[in-house]
Amino acid sequence: MTLLSVDHLVKSYGTGKVAISDVSFDVNKGECLGLVGESGCGKSTLARCLLRIESIDRGSITFKHQSIERLKERRLRPFRKDLQAVFQNPTAALNPKLKVKDSLLDPYDQYKQGLKLRHFSYTSKDAFVRQLLEAVELPSSLAERYPHELSGGQRQRVTIARAISIEPALIILDEPTASLDVISQGAILRLLSDLRNTLNVAYLFISHDLAAVEQMSQRIIVMKDGTFVDEFQSDHLFSEGRHPYTKELISIF
C-alpha cells in the first residue's frame, strides 16, 4: 500500500537556484526507501519539503491519501503524528535544558488525544519512558540525564526513541549516522532495521553513504543536482543497467 506519494515536486530559492527539479516517487507501508547522493544534491531540502518545514513551488505531496502540500498548520497537525523525522545532528535535535525523559514524553503530550498505541503502553510516565529506552537499547537510568551527559550514539538513540514514541507510519531519516563514529554507525543501522521490522514503520533513508543505503533499503533512488537519475531494487545495485553516476558512487564506496 502506498503511504507517501510525491509527484513532480519542484523547489527553488529566491536566488534562482533550483534545489529540486521535478521529482516523483512513492514510499510503501513498512518499506525502507533509500535516497542517496552527494552533499548538496538536494536530499535534505527534499526532506524539509516533505516535512512541510519548507514550501514547494509546484507538485504534490500525498500522505495517507491526503494532499498535504498546501494544508495550513491546524489541518496538517493530525498528519504530523504519523510523519516523524530523525536528523543528522542529535545534539541540535534535543533541547539541552530538558532531561531525556521530558524529551521522550513531548510527542505523546502533543498528540495523546485520540492516540492508539499498539506496541507501547502508557500506564505511567516512568513506565512509558522505560519502554522507549529499552526499545533503543538504552538503560532506564539515562532518563534523568541531560543531552550533554550522553555520548553521540546515545543522543541519536534518544532521538530515535522520541520519533517512534507515538508509533508513526513513516520516519524520514536524514543522514542519521553521519555524525557518529564507525562503530556507532553500525549499531544505529542495526537498531533502525530491527525497529522497522518490529514496529512495521516505513523509512525514507537519506544518506550520502551508499553502503549504508544498500544495507537498509529495499529500493534505492539516486539523486544528482536536484533530480533523480536512477531507481532500482537494492539487489540490482551492481547490474550493468545502472546510471553512470550510480556507477561512479559505487566506485568510491
UniProtKB/TrEMBL annotation:
PROSITE patterns reported in the protein's UniProt record: ABC_TRANSPORTER_1, ABC_TRANSPORTER_2
A family per Pfam: ABC_tran
InterPro entries, A to Z: AAA+_ATPase, ABC_transp_ATP-bind, ABC_transporter-like_ATP-bd, ABC_transporter-like_CS, P-loop_NTPase
Protein's UniProt keywords contain Magnesium: no
Domain named ABC transporter: residues: 4-250
Superkingdom of origin organism: Bacteria
Keyword Mitochondrion tagged: no
GO BP term, pick one: transmembrane transport
GO molecular function per UniProt: ATP binding; ATP hydrolysis activity
Keyword entries, A-Z: ATP-binding, Nucleotide-binding, Transport
PANTHER family in UniProt: D,D-DIPEPTIDE TRANSPORT ATP-BINDING PROTEIN DDPF-RELATED, TRANSPORT ATP-BINDING PROTEIN
Membership in a protein family: Belongs to the ABC transporter superfamily.
Name of the molecule in the record: Oligopeptide ABC transporter (ATP-binding protein)
Native source organism of the sequence: Halalkalibacterium halodurans (strain ATCC BAA-125 / DSM 18197 / FERM 7344 / JCM 9153 / C-125)
Organism lineage string: Bacteria, Bacillati, Bacillota, Bacilli, Bacillales
